[in-house]
Amino acid sequence: MLRAVALDDEIPALEVIEAFASRIPELALKAASSKPREASQYLAEHPVDLLLLDINMPAISGIDFARSIDQDIIVIFTTSYTEYAIESYELDAVDYLLKPFAFQRFQQAVEKAQTLHAARRLEQNKPLLFR
Questions:
Q1: Which comes out higher in pLDDT, residue 129 or 27?
Q2: DSSP secondary structure, 33-72, as one string
Q3: Exposed, middle or buried: residue 112 (CB in 10 Å: 0-12, 13-18, 19+)?
Q4: pLDDT of the residue at 124
Q5: Under 8 Å CB-to-CB from 50, ≥6 apart: which residues?
């Protein structure tokens, strides 16, 4: 189960993410906020696996927000702007959803996140080998 948080300054975009997330049983959207400070506080207080993050927000860009996170959280950017795609991958974003996106595209991005999450968990549980 992926525990997720969504941050987008547009309430309709958050509503779409909430609706799509509710259709994926393996995804638990724990919080959705239009305020970066609220999202940041939630991340500081709760374990989160996935961040669904808008890029162009008035208070802070999603790129800067992603850089400010000190946890190893998988990021999927959700934005209306194509020009940030390369920079998002420099931040190791697992996907880049261009608004408006369909449920199938959202599901595909979440599946990528699930695959990465499973690989990370497997790596963490792998015993160290000494020679």
A1: 27
A2: ES-HHHHHHHHHHS--SEEEE-S--SSS-HHHHHHH--S-
A3: middle
A4: 75
A5: 2, 3, 4, 5, 27, 73, 74, 75, 76, 110, 113, 117
Contact (CB, 8 A) for 47 and 3: yes
Query: Do the strands 50-53 and 27-33 form a parallel or antiparallel pair, or are they unpaired?
Result: unpaired
pTM: 0.91
Tens digit of each residue's pLDDT (9 = 90 or more) over 34-56: 999 999 999 999 999 999 999 99
Measured between its terminal Cα atoms, the distance across the chain in Å is: 35
What is the phi/psi pair of residue 130, to 5°? -110, 145
Burial of residue 56 (number of CB atoms within 10 Å: 0-12, 13-18, 19+): middle
Helix (H) or strand (E) holding 11: helix 11-22
Q: Which residues contact 46 (CB under 8 A, 6 or more apart)?
A: 3, 30, 31
Helix, coil or strand: residue 130: coil
Contact (CB, 8 A) for 76 and 27: no
What is the Cα 100 distance to its own chain's centre?
A: 16
